[in-house]
Amino acid sequence: MKRSILIENDQGGYTVPTKGLYPYQWNWDSVFVALGFATFDQDRAWREIEMLFEGQWHDGMVPHILFRKDDPSYFPGPSVWGTSGGQIPSSGHSQPPVAATVIRDLVEADTSGKSENRAAALFPNLMAWHRWFLAYRDPEGEGLLAVIHPWESGRDNLPDWDDALRAVEVKDIGPYERKDTSHVDPAMRPHKEDYDRYLSIMAACRKVGWDPAEVARTCPFFVADPGVTFIFLRACRDLLVLAERLGKDTDADEIRGWITRLERGLADQQTLTALCGHFDRISDKVRYLMPSYDPDHESYEPLRRRRRHFLLDGSHMVDLGIADTCETSSLGSRRTQEMGAIQLNKVEKWFGELQVIKGIDLDIQEGEFVIFVGPS
Ligand code: DGY
Questions:
Q1: In a domain? residue 313
Q2: Residue 138: inside a domain, yes or no?
Q3: Is the minimum distance from the CB of 156 to ligand 1 under 6 angstroms?
Q4: Residue with CA nearest ligand 1 atom 4
Q5: Residue of the nearest CA to atom 7 in ligand 1?
């Protein structure tokens, strides 16, 4: 565990993913970072998540970036997003909702009972965030969540977005200067055509004042994402365990309804059987399972679309990323080529059988980081 990286990137209660490239508080990075802090400082772990929820919008959304101070080394900053949804300047969309899962883990790992009080204080915020996802990312009630921006998926560079992104008209963006390519090799970052579209999506949402219903109705990018959906399903199951533990019976009933809706919207047995075929083929090719994208696929770009692996060794599932900036990054590389729909189904199959993420090990070897997930 590279405590020194967490401590160095600590901004006084929240942690930046990487100094320079990512100088603010990022949503799911923070929640994962809390697992790292929990291995040596429970209080600090809770603080990380509590500070994230300080930025929750009035409508329930928890933004993907909180701009707690102005840092000109990052683009697009607060003025480009133009939001006003919460107390802290922020981006305008969310990121995969892993907080309920990690909060459950923190509560169950703490026998003192203190964590339960902190979880109880955050419980209404978690409910509000989950309701927001269902209302505005699944407005038709199909049991499948959409993302309105590749960055909302947390799997920013996934080739799965390419077609939908190409369909976004580039407009209302004006000239702009990127900062990311001055921090890292441009070969590892998205192309300008992608950035033009990232900004065009933001411009369209700005036009409707980031009103979530209007965004869901008019956003030029509104793409079903099995990744976020499965993560959300997992989070709902963990939120249900918390609700039961905290005696929130009405909320627990509501969550059970969400779970039924999501399970209905997700993969059937025939799809899972086909996915197992892919799994077997891919497993012969890689050192760790499951790679985030099919190495045989023509869109596979290991540099720009970096890889994340899930390793199941019988007792542990390990999420393993290949990091470019891990010497300074809180979580290793954030820009991994992430799981595609196919792999996600498989991962969720395992994940459903496992209980919670047990810890995080930033044992940096060949640029890798590892998150351990324990069996149930
Ligand atoms: C980026 O790459 O700058 C995005 O904000 C990712 O979240």
A1: no
A2: yes
A3: yes
A4: 151
A5: 151
Domain interval for residue 57: 3-267
Dihedrals φ, ψ of 7, to 5°? Answer: -65, -40
Question: Domains in the chain: how many in total?
Answer: 1
SS (H, E, C) 78-129: HHHHCCCCCCCCECCCCCCCCHHHHHHHHHHHCCCCHHHHHHHHHHHHHHHH
Query: ipTM score here?
Result: 0.94
Over residues 5-34, mean pLDDT: 91
Indicate which atom in ligand 1 lies nearest the CA of residue 91.
5
Residue 330 has pLDDT above 70, yes or no: no
| Residue 106 belongs to a domain | yes
CATH for 197 = 1.50.10.10
Atom of ligand 1 nearest to the CA of 21: 3
Q: Ligand 1: which of 16, 18, 22 to mutate, judged by most atoms within 8 Å of the beta carbon?
A: 22
How does pLDDT run across 81-110, given as a tens digit for each residue? Answer: 999 999 999 999 999 999 999 999 999 999
Q: Is residue 288 part of a domain?
A: no
Cβ of residue 81 lying under 6 Å from some atom of ligand 1: no
